[in-house]
Structure formats: C-alpha cells, structure tokens
Amino acid sequence: MNDDKRNSSSYKDDGNIHSGRRLRQKQRGSHHSRISLSSLFMLIVGISVGYMIAYSSMEGRVPSSVQNDRSHRYLQELTNDSSDTATEEALKRFIENHKLLASQSIPTTTTPSIMKTPKLPDSERKKILVTGGAGFVGSHLVDKLMQKGHEVIVLDNFFTGQKKNIEHWLHHPNFSLIVHDVTEPISLEVDQIYHLACPASPPHYQYNPVKTIKTSTMGTINMLGLAKRVKARMLLTSTSEIYGDPEVHPQPETYWGNVNTIGPRSCYDEGKRVAETMMYSYKHQNDVEVRVARIFNTFGPRMHPNDGRVVSNFIIQTLQDKPITIYGDGSQTRSFQYVSDLVEGLYALMEGKYDGPVNLGNPDEYSVKNFASYIKDLTKSKSEIEFLDHTQDDPSQRKPDIRLAKEKINWQPVVSVEEGLKSTIAYFQSVLNESGEIIPTGPGASKPKEGTSTS
Questions:
Q1: Exposed/middle/buried for 67, CB within 10 Å: 0-12, 13-18, 19+?
Q2: Are the beta carbons of 400 and 75 closer than 8 angstroms?
Q3: For 113-136, how does the pLDDT look when each residue is reduced to its tens digit (9 = 90+)?
Q4: Which residues pair with 290 in a beta bridge?
Q5: Candidate list 194, 268, 282, 347, residue with the active-site label
Q6: Is 268 a catalytic residue?
Q7: What is the pTM of this model?
Q8: Rounded distance, CA 130 to CA 384, Å?
Q9: Are the C-beta atoms of residues 214 and 183 closer than 8 Å to each other?
C-alpha cells in the first residue's frame, strides 16, 4: 500500500516537473535561433577536447601534462582558422569520434580488451537495470548486455563493487551509472531487472549482518515493487547457500535445504531464501514475471582480491609464496564455475520461458585440499598448505545438479576449470603488480578493502 502511494505521488511530481519544463522551454524558445555558427564551432571544439582527455585518461597510459599539452595544441589548431571549412572539418571529426566511442568500450587497465556494441532498432533495444552491476559477476553481465546493444543502467552503492570494473563503459551513450542503495526505493522506467545487489562472500556479508538481511529483503521488495509498476521481468540471483550444509548430494532444485537459522552465515542464507519467497509471492499475487538463479561457486577476473573465498585466497597466497590456509582438514568439497559460463546462464534464464528456480554451477567437484594443490601447481608456487580451525556451518559438500538447466534453458558450463583458473591467475598477477602485497582475508567478518601495499 505504501509502495503504491509512493509511486502515485511520484507520478504527480513528474507531472509538475514536466509542466515546469514546458513553461521554461516556452520562455526560452526565442533564444534558440540566436546560436551562431561560431558558438556551435566552439561547442564542438570543447566537446572534442573533452572526449580526447577522457579517452587518454581512461587508458591510463598518458601523463596529465602530455594530455594538457595535446589538448592545448588541438584547441589552437582548431581556433586559428575559424573559417567555415575549418568548422565543417571539426564537425566531421567530432561526429566520427562520437560514432566510434558510441560503438565500443574504451580499453582500461582492468579491462584492456575492446568490446563492440551493435546499434539495435528501437523495437529490439531494451532498457535493463542491473543492481550490483559494478561487482564481480554484475560487471561481466553488463558487458554481455552492452555487447547485445541494449541500454544498461547500473545501480550500485560500491560496498563491494568497484568503479574500475565498469569504467570502460562510462563514456558510452547506452550506459548509465546510479550510485544508490537498493534498500531505498527508486523510480525508473526499465524493461528488465537483474537483481544481483548483495555481498556474496562470507567475510563481507558477516561484516554487517543486519544490512545483509536488509539488502536481501528490503532491496528485493523495492525491486519487485518497481517491476510490478513498470511491468518488467525480474531475475533474482539467489545462491547455493540456500541449501545450507546439504544432506542430499548433488543438490537438485527440489531439495529444501539444511540451514542453521541463527548461525553466522544465516544472514545471507536465510535472506536469500526469503528473497525467493518474495519473488514467487509477487508472481502469484501480482503477476510479476520472475526468474530465480541459484548460483554455485563462481570465479574469474574482477573478483575482489579480499573477498576471502577459496579461489581468490588460494591464488593470492600462491602468487606471493604465502602459506595456503585451509579451514578444517580440507575434505569438504566445492564445485567451481567460470564467470562467463554463469553470465550465459543468467542471460538464457532471463530470456527463456521457464520461471522456476534453476541451479547454475559446474558439477566438476574438488576437495578443498586437492584444489589448493591444483592451484599451487598451476602457479608453480613454493607455498605450503596450512590447516586451521574449521569455520562454523561451513558446508561439507557442494555440487549442483544441473539437469534442469540443460532441459529448460539449454545451458551447461563450457569453460574448463583449468582454462578459467589460468585466466584468473593472470588477472590477479596484474592486480599484484599494480598494488604490491595483498594480505588475504580470513574467515571472520571483514569490510571490503583493496589490500595492503608494501611497495
């Protein structure tokens, strides 16, 4: 009821705003015809210089003094000859540069590759909201959607998300960034909502368990309210953690789970279980189109270096020849999927017709001890394995049953663990080269941080 009141009042506010805009536009209408050719020329020059500075800065390879010198010379060249010919040439170059920047990403340190963006007709182009879009998985999903030619709005409060994960799109006309917390309502016009916002690693979601619960509950309610109002299809990224410490192996979607409701992990586990309940309540009561993905362990480039998870910790430790820390005897099992496989699964689920929960994971199962040895061999590290106390409620086994994903959305992982690890190891090596030493995060609650540099 309160949600509906807020939405109706926002419509009234929008009407007043638009009325005011029309009045101001009418008052200013006579001034538009007075814009001279020289004014247009100077506007083009300014925007062109701005684009040149932005492009150089984002590459991270051109010192600011050189950028300023280039910009100054470019400005002089354009303004020395203000003839119509020079103006036309400047306009032509500006249009060409704008078309180029509107057709691809800009290479950055984090994302050096260039990604092309096709131009879709209005009838095919969707406006898509991605909450948590500056995070590890979210930023890769944004890449997928941008390369499909859609308009993408990223909503993130940057608790665990990082701006560098999406900076290669900041210039693009199809991309928008809103710094916002999903626990607060927001009004937007969108066609689809991918709701990823929530810390996903145990140290991060245990740092502020009340906020984690609010993100999963209030955040999901706010996004469902938005989906209901604008009739958008909404996908929730749930988790394999809803199965808890499973007594069924592997875990099918029909398994109800074995979760400690008052343990240190319950703020995340139970929060996601409630979020799933909300999704299907809105579906049955309000006809909201919903999709639910239960995500198993995922790894790849752009993982937060201090998220405290198995893959990131083991890679950071082995690359620095630090002890590989295992909590317990290492017999607990995990399944690991590469991030590009997950993104393909999320996209297939959103675009498909099946609306029940779907496991997205790689059934290739490893014991934690064997996985540590595997990463040590791949990195040719001198690290030794160190066994520490077992953490509370740590699942003893985890492996997805993905028969439903194969049947309903024609999805299964295609990237091998070895291939994915090699790419991820190269990424973390570049992070270490840039930041110096990184101190891995332990199992306890921890606020996200970049790491400690000693260089």
A1: middle
A2: no
A3: 999 999 999 999 999 999 999 999
A4: 234
A5: 268
A6: yes
A7: 0.81
A8: 40
A9: yes
Q: How far apart are the C-alpha atoms of 46 and 48, rounded to whole Å?
A: 5
Q: What does the longest C-alpha to C-alpha distance in the chain come to?
A: 79
Q: What is the pLDDT of residues 54-100, one digit of tens each?
A: 444 444 444 444 445 655 565 565 555 556 788 888 888 888 888 88
In 247-365, which residue ranges form alpha helices assigned H by DSSP?
A: 266-286, 310-319, 339-351
Report helix, strand or coil for 290.
strand
CA distance 28 to 394: 65
Between CA 86 and CA 168 the distance in angstroms is: 31
Give the residue among 215, 216, 194, 219 at the shortest CA–CA distance from 142: 194
Predicted confidence (pLDDT) per residue in 367-426, tens digit: 999 999 999 999 999 999 999 998 888 899 999 999 999 999 999 999 999 999 999 999
Backbone phi, then psi, for 440, in 5-degree steps?
Answer: -60, 150
State the pairing for strand pair 333-335/365-367. antiparallel
Closest CA to 134 of 106, 186, 175: 175
Both tokens assigned to 154:
């990223």
